[in-house]
Amino acid sequence: MTESLGVAVLGAGHMGADHIRRLDRVVSGARVAAVADPDTDRAKEAAAGIEGVSVHAEAEAALDAPGVGAVLIASPGPAHEAALLAAFARGLPVLCEKPMVPDPAGALRIVEAEVRLGRRLAQVGFMRRYDAGYLRLKAVLEEGRLGRTLMLHCVHRNAASPSFFTSEMLIEDSVAHEIDAARWLLGEELTAVTVLRPRASGGAPEGLADPQFVVFETAGGALVDVEVFVNCRAGYQVRCEAVGELGSVRIGDDQGPLVTVSGSAAAEVPQDYVVRFADAYDREVRAWVAAIRRGRVGGPSVWDGYAASVVAEAGVRSLRGGGRVTVEPAARPELYAGGAG
Amino acid sequence: MTESLGVAVLGAGHMGADHIRRLDRVVSGARVAAVADPDTDRAKEAAAGIEGVSVHAEAEAALDAPGVGAVLIASPGPAHEAALLAAFARGLPVLCEKPMVPDPAGALRIVEAEVRLGRRLAQVGFMRRYDAGYLRLKAVLEEGRLGRTLMLHCVHRNAASPSFFTSEMLIEDSVAHEIDAARWLLGEELTAVTVLRPRASGGAPEGLADPQFVVFETAGGALVDVEVFVNCRAGYQVRCEAVGELGSVRIGDDQGPLVTVSGSAAAEVPQDYVVRFADAYDREVRAWVAAIRRGRVGGPSVWDGYAASVVAEAGVRSLRGGGRVTVEPAARPELYAGGAG
Amino acid sequence: MTESLGVAVLGAGHMGADHIRRLDRVVSGARVAAVADPDTDRAKEAAAGIEGVSVHAEAEAALDAPGVGAVLIASPGPAHEAALLAAFARGLPVLCEKPMVPDPAGALRIVEAEVRLGRRLAQVGFMRRYDAGYLRLKAVLEEGRLGRTLMLHCVHRNAASPSFFTSEMLIEDSVAHEIDAARWLLGEELTAVTVLRPRASGGAPEGLADPQFVVFETAGGALVDVEVFVNCRAGYQVRCEAVGELGSVRIGDDQGPLVTVSGSAAAEVPQDYVVRFADAYDREVRAWVAAIRRGRVGGPSVWDGYAASVVAEAGVRSLRGGGRVTVEPAARPELYAGGAG
Amino acid sequence: MTESLGVAVLGAGHMGADHIRRLDRVVSGARVAAVADPDTDRAKEAAAGIEGVSVHAEAEAALDAPGVGAVLIASPGPAHEAALLAAFARGLPVLCEKPMVPDPAGALRIVEAEVRLGRRLAQVGFMRRYDAGYLRLKAVLEEGRLGRTLMLHCVHRNAASPSFFTSEMLIEDSVAHEIDAARWLLGEELTAVTVLRPRASGGAPEGLADPQFVVFETAGGALVDVEVFVNCRAGYQVRCEAVGELGSVRIGDDQGPLVTVSGSAAAEVPQDYVVRFADAYDREVRAWVAAIRRGRVGGPSVWDGYAASVVAEAGVRSLRGGGRVTVEPAARPELYAGGAG
């Protein structure tokens, strides 16, 4: 196939605009065919200079625009369910940014809709599965030389949170990444969660429970702990250490240039996740496009999106009520057989 | 004072013999005056070549030997209480290896006995307070540039545990170090503890709950988590990261020579805590001897020893019964005023 | 421009095949239009599965194939001069792998030919200028907070050299990268070179002067030292430390996952430069394609290719004859004004 | 022997006062018996609070003071020769700070004087041989798993030089350490030296050739390069990488606490060599005292001191005249047989 894949991008905010740039300039074999955003000025701006693109206020209009062969959903979470169903109705392959659908019931409706189609059409945007560090970490675990994995220690820190961030969003938005990464790395479902609240940082907005310390248990008895701290001030930091029976493996201390000056030897800590995971986003979208061009859909499934929702929702209950909350997911459909992640 | 300090060493096992060597050859201003061990052959062997030393089967005989001006207790834990009381009765300064007295009731009796004396005679052997890394970590926290400390993440791994090690000893023997270090670094008491049990490593003896993951809460709302894994196989590893409101600081990744060969760039991981903390032991005993020669007693007190016992005992209850256990210590006597640690 | 750029790739060996894969699958906006290799079976294999590509034995035939808008030269060095001149004759933009033209006289003919065209058509494949580490190192130097750069310390090690490698090729093929990187980082010409020969490694083929230690002097008095060791056995390693008046900056110790097992904490050392510089090659070709689509040519020029040749040739004379050899380049044409690199 | 060793310390400046403190408080089995300094006020101040010490203006008077069993020479270099000869005349074991005797002729007279005694009495203060990092580096080399050592890359940086520092002193005072370390690590004599002068740092005093880049050749064909930069501003840094036939090993990047704050992850760089090598000095003096108490003298010999002088003097000639200077030492007396270092 030499024809490039025409993609409709839904949402022209920060993430949508970045994906438009990526599809236009970075990813081979794709082009932006349509952009939809209720704010059409924003959509036009993001689409500026791209030949043959159409701009729409409505998502469905973009899906029906000429030349559209796939959909990338980067609109706000509440719009995801309708957009996914609209794509399914048209048989269009989808890449849906996370959280796929924030509430578990809605997420389950997506799973059921895809099951009715009888084949996978959607991939969920858990880009860490495409990060070079995570990929190498997983490769080390799969080599088997560390034995079974017993624990994951995770750190997820942002320099500062947006003003609209709530205590629940530390789980739903931030830890969601660790939920998916843990399921993927361990190949096991998370079955219980306990959210602990250390004293709040004076650097966080009044009333925000920040940081939090979250402990997950897996079906096989492994533990996953996550420090999430979205106003850590120092910079964006994502670390993961897997502890196995025979050793451990750690990622996230990768350093750029080491600068020695004025009494310290220092590496820069990036301020933004876009810097840290830029390559992962590129790899994710590239793999998605390449798969579609070969008639396939892969990567994290809507089941993975649902699983993250249901675990995050249990986490939110633990955050609110305290104590350990068990996770009670629906039965896993045959379409998504083959282990967690 | 030019006269060196004569020390009676109680216990000539692994740790006692090491302290005998240290007092004889490393520490300025001290000499080994007496050695006691029920196994007198072992005591003689440890004392071989030291001029003017007497060897005894009974601890009290060693305390009464000529030239003894201080006592170093390195006998097994159950013998500590009697030895401490005997030293107190004679007004001799003591350095007592940890755990000071394993059960909280016995530990409290020691606190009460010293309070009756009205002055401190004993120092407890929490040598991490003398480790260069911990000292620098504490200095960074005290500078204040990281704001208040919110969390400590700790890792404590041994290559393999001795055959007699029980699941409880992971708390009482190993995590005891983190209990003291956390109290000292944060200047706060630990008020609750939850012990979690990930699936046991196939590399640990049958029936041993290894690793464990322990979460402490402090009086001020900080969290301290500790991975303890005494059959991790890879080597001895002690790490500590303090997370403050404005940044974090980490120790324990110090590396010796970096050897690049055969496709890997590697630093050696020591197999033994004696290697890792050799300098801390030297500094501890040196400071103890120097203080006595100036007529003082400092360092970790018997209150610190008691506090570690009572927190560890709560941890053992959590390990056995599951769930969160609150720590309920006795009231802190005036003699030990001035904050935790 | 929505039409993708058709590229003729000359040479279908290891490097050529990798560029074909890159143009076909990784780089947005380009496609492989023609492949030439005297071994047409090899060319066919590298072009397999690419729609609309033509395969040729002769380079010029590929340049004349339909749809060709640019040329990527990845044939052996001796074929570069003719290929560059043929591209110039057709007004086609070129990306030429290094060494551009191995002998300075031939390299100068290319410079003169492009000067006669009156505009830049060619970019030389010094991909380190596109490596994230080098780019960040250069950014640190340009910020000015280290003051003027006084020295560069470089290490360039390969696990093993190909069987045809000669002592001269350590300079011409390997150190060529450091020659260009030094000119680019310092913005100065290299004016003298001294090649020192430590005792040869027993791990290198009999008669090969491996390792070598090369010291360059710049026009402004900076020093650049390079350890080149092409049979170092341990793996592929490229490091660079810049020492300024106020501090230093170092790249090349970037580590992937840190694996702690069996008494060592180790990061993998890659065996191959393709792994280490994969992203740099992608970025280089992407930038080249994007520039052409905007009607521009940038990146390292044929003057940079000539400069590397003339410095490397002086290095070879130093290797052979011993002692310090001064570099005597032709005058820099106006077309390439603006500092070294 | 229970009697502690009485030491006469010659020189009560920065280094002498530090050794007095060390002998008084840190090193087991020794005491300061006498202190000599032409500035007797300074001597008194350094000796304050030490029982039984006598203070002298003249070195010889200190050697003859009661209770003196050994001599530590920490006076300025020009006074070393007379002090060493005076100690030899009295049969007193000596630890002499480096440079032993700055000029090779004087150093050779010391060698000859000790040879006439027929036994070793003096140890030279090359403390790096007692640094944990160097010891481990040497251990790795001696294990043999890196094959023969082919090159050493060394960095020696001070934050700032004292006002009296001359260009020659970068070789005689600073690189002297690398000269001894290289001889010791490689077990080979240095046979030629080339001193290169990069452009001088604007941060160095006017007229000081700082930094310098020094290349040594060994008898067996190994190369040793040293960056010496005594006004590097950033802090005190000593690094050494040994490159062998099968791999490499590096020390000097050891880091204390890693502090992540305000966009950087940084380790402190010490400002002073006393911090970096504090443990090495302790170990050096402890080993010297312990050896004397067992009737022995070991460590770096006066031959090592002479060798450093003669190599440094060749370096100074290269610095002044430019070019490569060969080192032409006297014949090595039988008393110092057994390889360089």
In a few lines, what is going on in this structure?
The structure is a homotetramer of 341-residue chains. Chain A has 341 residues and is of the alpha/beta class.
Please provide a written account of the structure.
4 copies of one chain form a homotetramer. With 341 residues, chain A is α/β, with parallel strands linked by helices. Chain A folds into 2 domains: 5-128 and 280-301, NAD(P)-binding Rossmann-like Domain (Rossmann fold, 3-Layer(aba) Sandwich); 129-276 and 305-330, Dihydrodipicolinate Reductase, domain 2 (2-Layer Sandwich). Helices cover 36% and strands 24% of the residues of chain A. Chain A is built from 10 helices and 15 strands. In chain A, the strands form 3 sheets. A 7-stranded mixed sheet of chain A has the order 12-11-7-10-9-8-15, with helices on one face. In chain A, strands 3-2-1-4-5-6 form a 6-stranded parallel sheet, sandwiched between helices. In chain A, β4 (70-73), α4 (80-90) and β5 (94-96) form a beta-alpha-beta unit. The longest helix of chain A is centred in the middle third of the chain and has 20 residues, at 167-186. The relative contact order of chain A is 0.16. The interface between A and C is large, with 40 and 40 residues.
